[in-house]
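Table 4 source record.
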Amino acid sequence: MFPHHREREQPIFSTRAHVFQIDPTTKRNWIPASKHAVTVSFFYDANRNVYRIISVGGTKAIINCTVTPSMTFTKTSQKFGQWADSRANTVYGLGFATEQQLHQFSEKFKEVKDAARLAREKSQDKELANTALTIAAPQSPPVMCVNGPEDKLFRSQSADITLASEKERIKKMLSEGSICELNLEAELFTLQDSNSKLVAALHEANANVEQWKKQLAAYQAETERLREQVAELEIHGSQGPSDLLKDELTQSLEELEALLKAKDEEIHILQSKKAEYHAMEHERDQAILRLREMEMRSSELERRIQNAEQNLNNSLEDRDRIDTEIQRAIEILDIKIFDLNDLRQSLVKLLDK
């Protein structure tokens, strides 16, 4: 794979992950680039002093990204991360099996980015005339097809058509099950990320509500005290403090009432956010339920595929057995024909005598 570059490049880190690419139309949804978890590797080219991220799925490269100092790898959830490749005009996303794998990839990404920055600075110091680094795109590997010779006789054309259609049906079932499973995994990653953010916001809101309740109680006590003082001033008249003090107390009372009103509004806002959190929890539960249903469908598809493979193997065994019997019958017929020919020659000789 990539013979011209792999002679110079050496792998420095590898992991396995589900690969996604951002939808070029909406720029919001993720499109699975691989049906299963594939190997994602960092390569280093010592001759050109270049770092690349490469992942191959089947016979084509689904990630071929040159690491630049301006790139940033962002963790969007506990098991999902992404980065943007401006040269390819796309955003790559990786879904890992564990949080530890995501952390290891993120740390390696930072190391490679720093190394790429140092390499660029050294290259600029040595070669001031070169303002950009030219990177050759790897060629896609050729796909080789080998057609073996026909080694069986008397094959039934209808049996071949049936086997071919059965294989196509199996491939279709596998493809549909894998794509649906990856879409649900990406949706679950997004919901888990939103859920963790909402849980943190809810904890913070609950702490703020408790603190504001205490402040509210203190403000209410202060307001009652000020109201009592104002009432005493109004009753005693000249015996109390001056009118200036009464105005100050009245102004403080109005400020406290305005602050109480603002705190009440904040409490209402937090309560509405709590309702939104419950709605997100309901959506998460629905997504988990859909994922379980998809797992059940996947199990059913696997069972059907196993049955189809068993039927296919039985059909192949029956066809091989029929071919063997036909071959044996042909050999017996050849012997009989030889015996008849020998008998004919003997009869001819007898007639000639």
